[in-house]
Write a structure and sequence with these properties.
By secondary structure, this protein is an alpha/beta fold. The chain has 13 helices and 11 strands. It folds into 2 domains: 171 residues, Aldehyde Dehydrogenase, Chain A, domain 1, CATH 3.40.605.10; 129 residues, Aldehyde Dehydrogenase, Chain A, domain 2. The mean pLDDT is 94.
Length: 340
């Protein structure tokens, strides 16, 4: 299929996504998706459809693809995808990249997120029946593929390396997102930062799990700014995680701050458990930047009000990635276009 035809179809898909996001009627399959995975609340699912719908405009798609030389491939390839299931439709961008480079998708879905991908495929097939041939899902081992894109943890990456190392591949590992706090950040800044932290309950690699804080900073300012997210504690799975981590910190005599829905503890690890945020103090801008450079292979994105030499996002924008924001900062389109 010609790229422009794909784009036309995807724009129509974006409108369908927005209709789902804006609908006030009950969608049985969204309820089923939540019943199967309690982290996938109706609010989270509709947020995903809204953001994807906003991305899939003709302008966005054409601007994104203009930087590549995309021509019809000599031979259509089958790209295996191992998709994560931590947040709704987290692997949609990979499917998009495979289709737009003229290839076929063979995706192994997470059992946590099978229903939403089925909805996406059905919507695409309704727009253009050709997608029934271009997109396939499987619960079995991935075979008869030409390349693989696998997303998982540091542990699962070793498994992926063993089984898929013979194929051209992108194998993604753990990544975390961080926020740089400045002494002049306002209550409004922290409220926006709350979106980066609590959207999807903190389960995504783009969720801020680690704060870099200037020495002498009053943490009460941060807590006051995120008060509007207190309702998250009413979600039973989040509440269970929060309470469990609070108990562990207390039993281990680890100092922490608590605002009754979020725990803040000083820790050098950028990976923090659900319900907990780790933080580290910095003395100067050079100290801050050296720390980030030393850990850049662990970082997905950085949010900050201040601009630096490295790429940053404004507060509140971590969960609103652009089409050019590739997971692990590996250009998926370029990888697919250069397959032999």
């Amino acid at each position: 299929m010609e790229t422009q035809k794909h784009i036309s179809n995807l724009v129509e898909l974006g409108l369908a996504f927005k209709n789902i996001a804006n609908s006030n009627t009950q969608e049985p399959r969204l309820e089923l998706a939540e019943a199967k995975n309690r982290w996938f609340t109706q609010e989270s699912i509709k947020y995903t459809f809204k953001e994807l719908g906003n991305l899939l405009s003709s302008k966005n798609l054409n601007n994104w693809l203009a930087q590549y030389n995309i021509s019809k491939p000599i031979s259509q390839k089958t790209i295996g995808l191992v998709l994560a299931g931590n947040i709704p439709l987290v692997g949609f961008h990979d499917i998009l990249c495979v289709l737009l480079t003229g290839n076929k998708v063979l995706a192994k879905l997470s059992h946590k997120d099978e229903i939403l991908y089925t909805i996406v495929k059905e919507l695409l097939v309704k727009i253009n029946p050709i997608y029934s041939e271009l997109i396939s899902f499987t619960n079995a081992s991935l075979k008869n593929i030409d390349a693989i894109i696998a997303t998982g943890s540091d542990n699962s990456s070793r498994y992926f390396d063993y089984y898929f190392g013979k194929y051209p591949n992108i194998i993604r590992k753990n990544r975390n997102s961080i926020a740089i706090i400045q002494s002049d950040n306002t209550n409004e800044d922290f409220e926006k930062l709350g979106e980066d932290i609590f959207t999807y309950f903190g389960l995504g690699c783009r969720n801020v799990s680690y704060l870099l804080i200037p020495e002498g900073f009053d943490l009460g300012n941060f807590f006051r700014g995120i008060e509007s997210f207190a309702g998250i504690i009413n979600h039973h799975k989040y509440a269970n995680n929060y309470q469990y981590q609070k108990t562990l910190l207390s039993m281990n005599n680890t100092p922490f701050y608590d605002n009754n829905f979020c725990l803040l503890t000083e820790n050098n690890s950028m990976t923090s458990p659900i319900g907990t945020i780790h933080y580290k103090y910095y003395k100067s801008d050079s100290d801050l930047q050296n720390h980030i450079i030393a850990n850049k292979h662990k970082i997905q994105c950085i949010v900050s009000k201040t601009k630096y030499s490295f790429n940053t996002y404004s507060f509140g924008m971590a969960q609103k990635p652009e089409l050019t924001d590739y997971a692990d900062n590996i250009d998926t389109i370029n990888f697919l276009l250069n397959l032999k």
